[in-house]
Amino acid sequence: MRLLLLLSLLSFAAQAQVIDIDINGRPYSCTPRGNGGGGNQIECVEVAYAGPFTRDESLRLCAGARNDGPARCALKAYAGPFTREESLNLCTGAYSVGPADCVIKAYAGPFTREESFRLCDSPYASVSTAECAIRAYSGPYSREESISMCRGSKSLGSDVELIGKDESERLLIEVNEKAMREGTYKR
Known about the structure:
A two-stranded antiparallel ribbon has the order 1-2. It has 10 helices and 2 strands, in the order αββααααααααα. The radius of gyration is 20 Å and the shape is globular. The protein is mainly alpha-helical. It starts with a helix and ends in a 5-residue tail after the last helix.
């Protein structure tokens, strides 16, 4: 009987550690692993340091990381058109490579560097965040309104399905042409 009670209590304690979170409007249930994530922070630092980042930059980037997401994010952003410092600032605290995907997609469209970073500054940002803003801008909304509607962890981007490559290319051409007509393209 005591063994059954002990097993029930252990089972209850294990269930009590489940953490429910919301990422881009989608609910997830997570169970903490290991020693509170310290090993994951080490993995993040190792990935960043194996790349172009110094030891100090890697430690700053990965402070409190739960996985290697910040490192993968910074590597992708830095491999693209962004500086080392921009990549580190964007990806510190990121949960995945999503913010880099977002900023690269937004910057390929009509958004300036500053606008792209403002749109994608959430650790939850993803390519769907950028696609949300591009779709909004292709309609009646200004760039600023598009950014306001789509930025952050609970953006309209979470409700937008990812678009196909052909549709994405067509939409990018359309919004870039709109920005040129308005005289606001990347100024």
